Amino acid sequence: NAFTSADATTYFAKLASDRLDILLELEADRMRGLSLRSDQFEPERQVVSEERRMRVDDDPVSYLRESLTATAFATHPYRQPVIGWAPDIENWTLEDLQAHYDQFYQPGNAVVVAVGDFDPEVLAERIEHFFGDIPAGPPPPAMIIREQPPRGPRRIEVTRPAQLPFVMLSYPAPNLRNPDYAALEMLSVILSAGKSSRLRESLVREQEVALYAGASYNPTPVDDRTFTFAAQAQPQKTARE
Fold first, then answer.
1. How open is the CA angle 206-211-212, to the nearest 5 degrees?
2. Closest residue by Cα to residue 233 from 60, 96, 63
């Protein structure tokens, strides 16, 4: 399968160790031998468009999260949704896709990660066998945009068909290059991991103002992102409460 994050596209597979050559051959072919055809492009565009409608436009919480992220970052590309805005998807061309593939799908812009039942030296030799003849390729353009500190609070309210209000708060937070990341990760666990977490105990059980309350923090992005709180109100409770 595969997934795309704000920083990378990742292809992954789980298979028997005596079938590793099959996977390496396929991935090496995908890296520089992929055929991008017009007869496949339009149907896949519709798939992505429908995925966006289902996961974002028709999901009030995801719609709010996307809007909050676009508000939290004024200049950094993290403000762009990974799947793209709807007008972006509508206006993609096959040439756009080919240009992206040619620029980024290069050995010099890739990392292979493997865990499990294999001999590391043998696997390194097989990786060299399948990928070694592919030129490193041009390096991707350096991403040197740095988000400036916020000048003050930014607030956004979105209205979607929904049963209950949902509230999110994001604060700028460093990635794991900063020694504070460990404390932030611990904080997110204390606040929202498990039934005994602080937010759940206070807002859900004791005060009974929220159906759900949690916090999230990811230290692994390439650049600094956010520490985010989220809560859904109980019936008859307001977002302000």
1. 95
2. 60
